TrEMBL record:
Name of the protein this chain belongs to: CopG family transcriptional regulator
Organism name: Rhizobium deserti
Superkingdom: Bacteria
Length: 85
C-alpha cells in the first residue's frame, strides 16, 4: 500500500481520482460495525513485544491485538459469530 499525506489524499479524492492504491483493503471495515471495550492486563515484557511487532507492521498495539484475535478466531471458525451463540 502506498502512502501520501491526508491533504494529498483529500485533494485526489475531491478531483475524482482513483485512490484505491492508498487504502488498506485488508483491514477495511464496514462503517456500521459497533465496538465495545475490553480491558486486558498483560506483563510489561509482553506489551513491549506487542509494541515492537506493531511498529514493524505500522499499526497500533490495539490494531495488532485485534487483527491477531480476528485471525485466530477465523482459524477456529468462530470469527464474526455473535457472542450470545
Amino acid at each position: 500500500m502506498k502512502t501520501i499525506s491526508a491533504q494529498e489524499f483529500d485533494e485526489r479524492f475531491d478531483r475524482g481520482e482513483d485512490i484505491s492504491e492508498y487504502l488498506d483493503w485488508e483491514n477495511a471495515r464496514s462503517g456500521g460495525e459497533q465496538f465495545g471495550a475490553a480491558e486486558l492486563d498483560l506483563p510489561l515484557r509482553l506489551l513491549g513485544t506487542l509494541d515492537r511487532e506493531a511498529g514493524k507492521l505500522g499499526v497500533t498495539r490495539q490494531q495488532l491485538v485485534q487483527r491477531w484475535l480476528e485471525e485466530r478466531l477465523k482459524e477456529r471458525g468462530a470469527a464474526g459469530q455473535d457472542a450470545a451463540q
